[in-house]
Amino acid sequence: MLRVCWKGANAAARNCLCGKVPVHPLQHCRRYTSAGNSGSAAGKIVAASILTVGGGLGGTILYAKWDPKFRANVEKSVPYSDQLFEMALGPPPPPFIPMQKKPVKAEPLQISSVSEASKDSKQPKAKSKAKEKQPEPAPVDPKPAVEEAPALPPQTIEAEECHECASHEPAVKERPGEEVAARLAQQDKAEQDALAALSFNLEDTLGFSAKLTLQAIGAQEAALTAIGTHTHRLREAMDSEDPPDKKSAQWRELEDALSERTRAVDQAGQSLLQAKEQLEKLRVVINGAKESKIEAARPQILAAEENLHSMIVDLDKVVTKVQAAQTEAKIVSQYSELVNEAKVQFQKELSSITPEVQANWKGLTGKLSADDLNSLIAHAHRRIDQLNRELAEQRVREQIRIEAALEQQKHEHQRAVDSAVDKAIQHNHEQLRLEQEKKMQEVREVMEAEMRTQLRRQAAAHTDHLRDVLKVQEQELREEAQEALSSKMMEQETQHRRLAQEQLDSFTLDMNSAYARLKGMEEAIDSHVVAEEEARKAHQLWLSVEALNYTLKTAAADAPTEPLEGAVRTIKESCAENEFAQALATALPDESLTRGVYSEASLRARFYGVRRLARRVALIDETRNSLYQYFLSYLQSILLFEKEQEAPPTKLAAQDLDTFKLLAYATYSIERGDLELAAKFVNQLHGESRRVAQDWLKEARLTLETKQVVSLLSAYANAVGLGTTQAP
Amino acid sequence: MSEKELGQKWDRCLADAAIKVGAGLGLGIVFSVVFFKRRTFPIAFGTGTGLGMAYSNCQNDLRSPYLVHSNATKEQ
């Protein structure tokens, strides 16, 4: 049946197991299918998370783009976000505070900026502080002329720098004087350099232009002379009636002169152009110099301008001269052309009439015949008539022409006059301007000089005033100092006297105290000695008591201790003058001295024997002491059952005086270590029990006595020892 | 030691009893043999005498502390 059950249980277990087995593949399948489902769900989750993160990032970046503060916050809190932002948005916008420009320019601007202060209300306290630092008193300068301080940048930059200085007030606060002076010196040097450069430049260009102008003038004059010579030669050539070879020589010369003239004119034109260019350059340079506004360069500039002007004027003059000469030359050439033309005409006519007559008819005198002469004369008459007619016509025409020409001339003259007037006006204007500038310069200088003198006067007055004030102050201070000195001296003296007295007093005090202390020390030492003596004695006593105590301990089981005599003797010797100890030492029982005492343990052990015996003889006393009584007593002890130990009452009643009870109490006491009480109880025994316990009692009494005395002694020794030892 | 006294007494008692009884017995035997023709009464008598003497001695010994002597009273 067990086997059946066993099999059944196995089958059941197997069924359970098998039942579980098909579950697993289902679970797996479920897991696979759920995995498929979860796959898509996971994908959805992943996609959603990516979207969220991307959206968050994008939103952050966009908002950072819009709000730089937010961007700064994010950059501060999130590491490496600044790189991301830089990548996405570019560098962060510049901070709100303006850049730290060196307020170097602030210093030299003082003289001008002070004046600007009146105009520019943005000037902060820094300026006023920096102003205080200035060595020269810089009151608000009403004169705008003084504004032309060295190296002034344009006002806009000034204002900007002032604004920056305002924003950097603490930076500009304390400027050492040396720095200021250095800056000023630097500024002066820069100015000097600029001035030198400028003047050098000016002189250079001036020289160059002067040279060129001279060159031009020279060229022009050369051209003039060339034109003059040419014209002269031409006129000569026109007017002279020289033989042909000379004429040809003349014409050659004329040609030379012409070429010469053209060359000279060209050269003159070129040099004029160059000179004009150079003058333009000079003008530009002068304007630049004017713009740079260096004070000291003014006269130079003025001089340069004057030079320029004069050069221009000269050039113009020369040019006009040349032009006049050129017009004259043109007239002469025209005239020569006309003359040549007439001559040619005449020659042609002559040749037409008298073909064999040569051109140079003046040389011919005898070669001509009467016909020729008549024809010639007739021709000549005709010619004369013609010429007369022409002349009359010409005269009339001339009149008209002259009038027209006069009109033209008038116009041209007017024009020329106008241009000349304009030019003259310009020149005059220029001249006046130059003069004005010069005058201004002079006036400025004069004013400067006057201002300087006034300032000097003011400075002198100031120094005088300062001197007076200082003198007065000196006087006052001296008096004060004297007073202070005298008071201090008196104070010091009194203090000194007081100190001396104090010293003396303190010295005597010290001496007294030292003496007293010495005395005290001596006494202390003495008392110490005494106390030590006492202590030594106490110590000795204690030691001897300890020895006694030790001897008490030497009790072996059932054997008494060593005789206490030796220890007691030691005590007696060691504390011979201590009466109490002596008394106590003598109070010891002789038995203990000679024989020693039993230890409590041995007494305890002994007690049990005594107790047994006492119980056995409990009935025996004086009246009953036969053997039969002994037998009865034994029987009683055997048959009586009682508690071995019984706690004793505080008061003994009459019924407690029974042997057995007493013994029980004594046992109890002795078990609790109270030998004394046990001894007391044992003392109450009667009859044979008492007799039996007698020796034990005696021993107990001895022991107790000795112990008492010894404890007294030790207590005494301890007390004495405690008394003598000084607590630290 | 006072507690040993009793024991010692008892030892003496016993010893004494043994001797006395033995002696009585012996004497009884002797007397019985010598004088009384092997009758038992002298043995019994002798043993009894011996025992009685021992008992009396023992008792006396044990009583001795309580006996008041004439000289002791005089001293007191």
TrEMBL record, chain B:
TM segment ranges: 17-36
Keywords: Membrane, Mitochondrion, Mitochondrion inner membrane, Transmembrane, Transmembrane helix
InterPro entries hit by this protein: Mic10
Mitochondrion found in the keyword field: yes
Location in the cell: Mitochondrion inner membrane
Pfam families: DUF543
Topological category with respect to the lipid bilayer: Single-pass membrane protein
Domain of life: Eukaryota
GO CC annotations, alphabetized: MICOS complex
Main function: Component of the MICOS complex, a large protein complex of the mitochondrial inner membrane that plays crucial roles in the maintenance of crista junctions, inner membrane architecture, and formation of contact sites to the outer membrane.
Subunit structure: Component of the mitochondrial contact site and cristae organizing system (MICOS) complex.
Family, per entry: Belongs to the MICOS complex subunit Mic10 family.
Protein name: MICOS complex subunit MIC10
Organism this protein belongs to: Astyanax mexicanus
